[in-house]
Amino acid sequence: MPAATSATSSSSSASSSASPPLSTSTSPTCSTTSLPASDAILRADINRRLLESGELEKLTAHLNMLLRESGWREQTFQSCNRALRDPDLKIGNYNSLYAAVEREAIESVDSAIKIEVVKRIREVLEAIVEV
User: At what angle do helices 111-128 and 37-53 cross, to 10 degrees?
Assistant: First the structure.
């Protein structure tokens, strides 16, 4: 549990510098608002370490490559176009478009991609978090 101890000591700097990228680079379903304070602090510390080490950028690039290779990005782009053309959905801005296609987009990610990315995340976390 040394990671939690170090996270507590740096909570004021970690939460202010780490929280914005967390909220912009994860889906809205991954909110930290319902986490206990200690979990939120640990999450902020892990995010800060991922940012500082450059691993977050590498993980994001790898995920984007896998999604592109699988055709997911093109499929999601087509879903967005269909939603924009559907007069019943009344898409007026980005938020309404996002709400219209989010569930389909998340569910259409291939399970092999999910497994590979989770495996990579575990490997990175094991390397940066003291157990």
Answer: 90
